[in-house]
Amino acid sequence: MKIALAQVNPTIGALAANASKIADFARQAAAEGAELAVFPEMAICGYPARDLVEKPEFVEECQALLRDVSRQVPGVAILCGCPTPARAETGKSVHNTALVLQGGDVVFQQSKMLLPTYDVFDELRNFAPAERQRVWNWRGRRIAVTICEDAWNDKHYWPKKRARLLYAEDPVADQMRQGADFLINISASPFWRGKIGLRQEMLGAIAREYRVPVILVNQAGGDDQLIFDGSSLVLGDYGDLRARAASFSEDLFVVQAGEWRGPIRAQPEHETAAAWQALVLGTRDYVRKCGFHRVLVGLSGGVDSALTAAIAVEALGPQAVLALTMPSRYSSPASAADARCLAANLGIELREVSIEPPFAAMLAALRPEWQGAADGACQDLAEQNIQARLRGMVLMAFSNRTGALVLSTGNKSELAVGYCTLYGDMAGGLAVISDVLKTQVYELARYANREREIIPRAVLDKAPSAELRPNQTDQQDLPPYPVLDAIILDYVEEYKSAEQIAADRNLDPDLVVQWIMRIDRSEYKRQQAAPGLKISKKAFGMGRRFPIAQQYVEKTARPAAAAGERGKP
Fold this sequence. Notes:
single chain, 2 domains
């Protein structure tokens, strides 16, 4: 038996286009002698389709199109993820299902049992869980068919990682008790740094435990904030890697059952390279799947906007990227020169629109009202934000005139502590690097220069600055970025307490309390931010849900909070 791993990049809701893609891959699989072509979870409709699956006609069309594809390619059986109706008594209208079709008929189906509700997942909102699992008997083989999370509850692997099991059931163990010869897992498993290696390690533990080969077929591509790396694979019954698909692109290859060997495509050489490829793919798919053809980036001469522009050019090509530089009285000549050098290195169009005239007009209009009405610090902050909002206005005006999507350029460190301006530098349709800490921004910028200098050396060497007041640098307002990023990483991604962070990182406890309070009190900004691409275990956005109007403070932080304004954004 020859099995094809068909790693595709569907578009959510583009049902006819997805069906056409599945048919093309199935034909290729048949041409290479495959008897079974395996596609990812929910490949016919894209994942996550969210509340679209609540529409009965949506579910019906998904199934009808898959039957039609199967009739078009009768020589190969197709195993593909698809929503299917659930019984009324389950309380939900639909299952997340793996359908096996041949000649237009469904010959086997298995619905997902373990429905994740953590981080970015909310499957219990839409789906009914399967009540039981069974093996698929086909051509003399007993095949365990699982869907994504159904393989992520191994009772031996996770306790060794000091992680708790999330479910009482283990669908893999259930099917292995039924005498399965090998395991197929169809997935839509999103990327984050370290996920590719973790996924292979976890599936390898299953292979070794049950002494069975394991096949994973994972979705590739970007859907809204999520990025799917693909990295489909075949593991031998000792967990050894026998075949692997490309990462961050579509792919197809065929393996012979029993031999279980195929091509081993190269992976990203390290996590920075993986993050770069993820951001490029996520940007490309977000822009194109939303129907845009061009993007717009405001270039400040700083490293964040430089990195965003470099990612956009690799994702879309230089002809699809328009850059604006928008100087004011505080913009340095060096920053303007750096922006021009970057644009030339990238081969993109750069236009200049000075915000000085409207800034001066705003100050003239407002200062009479401000005389004696606000302290100097508040007035200074208001003047800085006027500049940021004027730049946002210019970018959106160009977006309206050109049809280009604005890419906002703020990083995770800024977004965490509210070091950004609502309706200013936060304006845009996609926040490309909003899940990239400032220290990681520099890593990615250096990676962008791996073959030639794209981001000018001066951009990497100079102190970061918003240039909204004379001689401003970020470190006048923030701790050193290595310190701030360590706090953000521990507090946001690992949920450590202020006390733990201070002890683990050997930091001043008062400093830690100050900045975690800033993180908490900046939630109102983050919930108004553009959607961002997720590349960490815990990103701001759909996977992190905290209330805005809340006053909880950790016990160890309460004395500092009561003492003054130290956490105020």
